[in-house]
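ugh ok fine here u go
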Amino acid sequence: MFGALVVRHLPGSRRAPLSIERTDQGLFLLWLAFMGLLVFASLLLWQAGAWHRLIEADPTRLTIVIVLMFIGCSGWAGRRAWVLGRQRTALDQAQHAGSWSGEFLQGTAQPGADRASWLLVLGERAHGPHEMAWWLNGIQLKLGLLGKVIGFSILALNLGQLESFDPSQSAQLLKSLTGGLGIALLTTVTGLTGNILLGLQLMRLDRFADALVADALALSLTSDGASDGDRPTGP
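structure:
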């Protein structure tokens, strides 16, 4: 929900959803294209040996935890994009049986129905599951910062164990000192990268869910207006 609020206040955020998203499972197709780019970039890094060096340089294995968390959350985002796409199709094609928008429209059409309560239910179904994903997205960043603290702690311990400086052992000394610095930098970069890339996916999900709720509400208000117009206004 917080990500959706941020997106609304960005310049141009009130534009209509992307045209591809209004097609059948367009949001899921966008997610597939995004993940395809990430997989391609990962293969390039693998061929360059970056992943191997990343694992070797981080004895804490926090980078592996962050990467696995990112993969799991991205898989969930793809599944969520599929679910939201089905709900969008049901709303656009007026297939309201068993859909969130159908329950909302049927509930608000009842005499004396509380539209605000039904809107909260619809909003919870559209946005509620995203809260845990946003929390895990923040955990990625916190794990990166934890690795930074651990790396600088190792660096400080190595400095504290120095009793004298021997020029003949300078290479070994630099290797032991830069080990902690490497942990700090690699975990921080991995956490920041995962946080940004997953945040892009979750923001798009929130924006799509916002459009779904808004269109369902607009359809409900239009239906009420049409019903009021059919009522006799005089005795």
